[in-house]
């Protein structure tokens, strides 16, 4: 499979490079790694990849039919008490 894919990609490359330049169009002299990386998405989208599509995993089972659920336990709210005012000491002497 991968050998056929390589031949297919190389054939597409040869067809791409053998196209004549139309007057008025831009001539690309240098293909930099960045430009090739930008074009790879378009190329792979048009020719496809040798990888298989992912298998569907299905729906998760969830709760069984007829199974009773228990409500969660409710606990009382714990509130902070307001601090009591401190007693003032008498200043004697």
Model description:
This protein has helices at residues 2-17, 33-47. The longest helix is centred in the first third of the chain and has 16 residues, at 2-17. It is an all-alpha fold and 93 residues long. The mean pLDDT is 78. The chain is elongated.
Describe the protein's topology.
Elements: H1 2-17, H2 33-47
Number of helices: 2
Low-confidence stretches: none
What is the end-to-end distance?
Answer: 104 Å
Estimate the helix proportion, in percent.
25-40%
Q: Describe the largest sheet.
A: none
Q: Could you say which structural class the secondary elements and strand pairing correspond to?
A: mainly alpha
Shape: elongated
Alpha carbon gyration radius: 37 Å
Strand-residue fraction? under 5%
SSE order, one letter for each helix or strand: HH
Give the total of beta strands. Answer: 0
Mean pLDDT, all residues: 78
């Amino acid at each position: 499979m991968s050998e056929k894919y390589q031949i297919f990609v190389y054939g597409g490359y040869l067809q791409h490079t053998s196209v004549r330049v139309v007057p008025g169009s831009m001539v690309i002299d240098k293909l930099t790694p960045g430009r090739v990386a930008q074009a790879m998405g378009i190329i792979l989208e048009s020719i496809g990849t040798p990888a298989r599509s992912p298998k569907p995993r299905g729906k998760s089972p969830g709760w069984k039919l007829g199974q009773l659920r228990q409500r969660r336990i409710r606990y009382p709210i714990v509130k902070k008490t307001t601090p009591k005012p401190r007693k003032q000491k008498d200043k004697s002497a």
